[in-house]
User: Which sequence fits this backbone?
């Protein structure tokens, strides 16, 4: 369960993450985290696109700027028919994954082959389809990435023949968590067989909750490096911990929400967390871009998406004033210094059109902007506190402390 998908899509990685002397304990943790996040991190993004679309009120004629991450939400936003989406990321693997999804949506022969490629993601036919229909339409950098080899020598495109959702740093972390659960006699997939919320609650209370009382689990989660696979850098670890007695208590509460607040029949995040992939049955929950009813629209609108291997602030700095309508920052701000936050919001405010909206998430519950950026800059924006609380409750990924919406005040 990823707490911060923006993690390598982050804005100015080194300056944001490396905030301590390199030879200090904290500095060594920060550099270890940066090293861990060089490759693919998120095979699937962990922000709920249904919540995003409601909060953003995205529509025709609008220009959305977002951090790309795994690309699921970028394609899902196309269902709202925006004029333009710019997806920026500093992680080359995430940019390559986004471009692969665009080319596949545009050039695979039908919805069934697209579904097999990204919903099943575990068939040798996907590699054949890649060679015949997708590879010829990829830019050379993206093609070199997918036809290159990962650190243990596997061709990266081969991941789609062997469950791609087991790949990436987060995928490895979840697999490790499942192994740990099995060591204590717990089958995580049992949750996916529950028929009611009551059954889900019973499974959580009897199987999962006791895990967080185990001495080894409490010791393990007290080490910030152990949570790198969740996308939690050292600075965000402290924000996530907040006033809680320990990290095991925090993680227990987040897993409780995922397990008990939403029916697994309607929550593909639960399927990823407990089963490491999407469900195979016809009614299995899926992100919007993989739903059959949206395929034609998504495929027809892929030319509206522009992927940039770029820094979010730098991209905005190159845009004209009043040229953007919507901004999605994921949780990247959790990494940032006050100076970086001020620079970011200065560019957002400069490029925002009337009625602009900014959506972001935080590890801790409160919005992090008050006291961090100048009052006169923050005064340009209205914090939708009641809506933000509602969006936080509704986010099916259940891994963030807060989902926050800001709207531009009238001049």
Assistant:
């Amino acid at each position: 369960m990823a707490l911060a998908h923006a993690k390598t899509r982050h804005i100015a990685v080194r300056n944001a993450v490396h905030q301590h002397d390199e030879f200090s304990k904290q500095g060594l943790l920060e550099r270890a985290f940066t090293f861990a996040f060089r490759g693919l991190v998120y095979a699937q993004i962990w922000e709920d696109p249904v919540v995003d679309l409601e909060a953003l009120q995205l529509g025709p004629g609008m220009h959305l700027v977002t951090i790309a991450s795994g690309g699921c939400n970028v394609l899902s936003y196309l269902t709202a028919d925006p004029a333009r989406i710019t997806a920026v990321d500093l992680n080359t693997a995430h940019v390559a994954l986004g471009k692969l999804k665009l080319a596949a949506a545009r050039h695979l022969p039908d919805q069934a082959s697209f579904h097999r490629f990204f919903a099943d993601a575990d068939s040798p036919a996907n590699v054949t389809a890649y060679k015949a229909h997708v590879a010829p339409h990829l830019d050379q950098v993206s093609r070199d990435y997918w036809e290159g080899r990962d650190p243990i020598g596997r061709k990266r495109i081969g991941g789609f023949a062997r469950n791609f959702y087991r790949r990436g740093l987060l995928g490895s972390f979840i697999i490790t968590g499942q192994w740990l659960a099995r060591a204590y006699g717990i089958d995580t997939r049992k949750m996916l067989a529950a028929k009611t919320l009551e059954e889900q609650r019973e499974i959580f209370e009897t199987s999962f909750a006791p895990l967080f009382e185990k001495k080894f689990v409490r010791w393990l989660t007290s080490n910030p490096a152990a949570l790198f696979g969740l996308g939690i850098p050292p600075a965000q670890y402290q924000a996530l911990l907040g006033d809680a007695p320990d990290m095991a208590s925090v993680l227990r509460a987040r897993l409780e929400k995922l397990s008990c607040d939403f029916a697994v029949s309607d929550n593909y995040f639960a399927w990823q967390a407990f089963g490491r992939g999407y469900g195979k049955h016809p009614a299995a929950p899926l992100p919007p871009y993989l739903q059959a009813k949206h395929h034609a629209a998504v495929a027809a609108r892929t030319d509206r998406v522009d992927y940039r291997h770029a820094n979010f602030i730098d991209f905005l700095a190159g845009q004209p004033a009043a040229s953007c309508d919507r901004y999605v920052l994921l949780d990247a701000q959790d990494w940032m210094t006050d100076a970086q936050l001020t620079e970011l919001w200065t560019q957002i405010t400069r490029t925002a059109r009337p009625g602009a909206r900014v959506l972001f998430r935080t590890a801790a519950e409160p919005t992090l902007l008050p006291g961090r950026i100048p009052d006169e800059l923050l005064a340009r924006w209205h914090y939708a506190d009641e809506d933000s609380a509602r969006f936080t409750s509704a986010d099916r990924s259940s891994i963030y402390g807060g989902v926050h919406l800001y709207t531009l005040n009238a001049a």
Summary: DSSP finds 19 helices and seven strands in the chain.
